[in-house]
Amino acid sequence: MSLFGFFKSKKPSTVIANILDPNHDGVKIETWLIGEQISKDAYENLGSNGSVYISVNYIAGERKYLLLNKNIWEEMRKQYEAIELSSGSILDEYNALIKEHKL
């Protein structure tokens, strides 16, 4: 490897995962390893400035992760917060949001 190759900026090996999960209060933030918890392709397609945006949906009790574009995730976060303030049945309404956006 040339000396110039050594100084090239490396792609991150970790990414900040911003997670909306109806079974947790608010946004949960985790550090994920690229290639383990998220594929390199998924990060390159929907990652933004070292972060990814995840929604969790429960199907038949099984936790499913959905990788979202940041703008869609932000809209869902706002709707999630509104539901949380007005309702005790957040899981059902949250899953309806997922279906509404056809995600």
What do you see in this structure?
Helices cover 39% and strands 29% of the residues. It is built from 4 helices and 4 strands; from the N terminus they run αββαββαα. It has a 4-stranded mixed β-sheet. A hairpin with a 2-residue loop joins β3 and β4. 16% of the residues are buried.
**So what's the overall shape?**
elongated
Counted by DSSP, the helix tally is 4
Note the gap between the termini.
43 Å
> β content, as a range?
25-35%
Oligomer: single chain
**Major pleated sheet:** 4 strands, mixed
Overall tally of domains: 1
Q: Keyphrases for this structure?
A:
103 residues, elongated, 39% helix, alpha+beta, 4 helices, single chain, four-stranded mixed sheet, 4 strands
Secondary-structure blueprint:
Blueprint: H1 3-7, E1 14-20, E2 27-33, H2 40-46, E3 51-59, E4 62-68, H3 70-86, H4 90-100
Parallel strand pairs: 1-3
Antiparallel strand pairs: 1-2, 3-4
Summarize the structure.
By secondary structure, the chain is α+β, with helices and mostly antiparallel strands. The chain has helices at 3-7, 40-46, 70-86, 90-100, and strands at 14-20, 27-33, 51-59, 62-68. The protein has one domain (12-100).
